[in-house]
Automatic annotation (TrEMBL):
Name listed for the protein in its UniProt record: Oxaloacetate decarboxylase beta chain
Species whose genome carries this gene: Aliidiomarina taiwanensis
Ranges in coiled-coil conformation: none
Subunit structure: Heterotrimer of an alpha, a beta and a gamma subunit.
InterPro entries reported for this sequence: OadB_MmdB
MF terms (GO), sorted A to Z: decarboxylation-driven active transmembrane transporter activity; lyase activity
Amino acid sequence: MDIVVTLWNTTGFQALSLGMLLMIGVGLLLIFLAIRYQFEPLLLLPIGFGAVLTNIPLAGLSEPGGLLYYLYQAGVSTGVFPLLIFLGVGALTDFGALLSNPRVLLLGAAAQFGIFATLLGAIALNWVPGLEFSLQQAAAIAIIGGADGPTAIYLSSQIAPELLGAIAVAAYSYMALVPIIQPPVMRLLTTKKEREIRMVELKPVSKRARILFPLMVVLLTALLLPTAAPLIGMFCFGNLMRESGVVERLNNTAQNALINIVTIFLGLSVGAQLSAGQFLTVQTLGILVLGAVAFVIGTAAGVLMAKLMNKLGRTAINPLIGAAGVSAVPMAARVVNKEGLRADPHNFLLMHAMGPNVAGVLGSAVAAGVLLALVG
């Protein structure tokens, strides 16, 4: 009997709490959404699996000495993993649509309004009983509005690591829900006539311009806003490798092997933060609500900016492409294209929408730098 009791005490079942069971359920739900509905599967699947592992009692995977603990300390708390992801994203990004029509940079900037509006909303929630966010936590939550997972993880790891798990899940969940969240907002703020606007064909961009652009961006941004230099620097370095055409092996590595390996480790590390004690709080509910609000405001701001540019400019812009200003690349651009085809089956907006879409990536990185400078 003593042997049976000893064996029972060494199992996880005897230490399994209701909170742990619920979080294992959350992890399994994320895995289900990744596989069944393909909601951001590259991140939600490893995040979900990491959540399952970290809530297994007595395993110690997220405690000092455990694998997930060291992955988090080495790559997430230091900010290395998100920066390496940005390097790979830069290598995958084509700035041709943005350089061909530089005006759409304003749409990417306008969409970041969701970040700063959500910052004020997070602070305002302190009036709600049971909810209390510090300025650092509010800033980390606000970055969800940028629709950029690596940026959200990087900023929250620097200024509010205790909210990292909830912020990462909210950011990637809402990014996966872009095709559901954005279209109603886009239709509400535009008329059918506006959605049918056909834009002027994009002009070719020279190789010299493509090479000079990342160099100019990194120098200008780093000098004006040094706190944004890590994100912008890695992003622009990846893009320079792509456009230079002389380091194809490095470019291929950044686009494929490197970004894939880091994505696995990043997902597991973030999932390790989804323990019952950290996730099952009133704050998590507030983060999820604010994340949805941030996406809606960012989408609306981009569309309204495009409408304003139509009033002030001579060349017509389809207001739908303003919704692509959030940096969910390329999903937001695809949603814009789908809505454009719904209004006019012959109106293809994908390449036009990629301009504000990649501008949104730069915009969210700059916004993160601003928040880090103000509250970090």
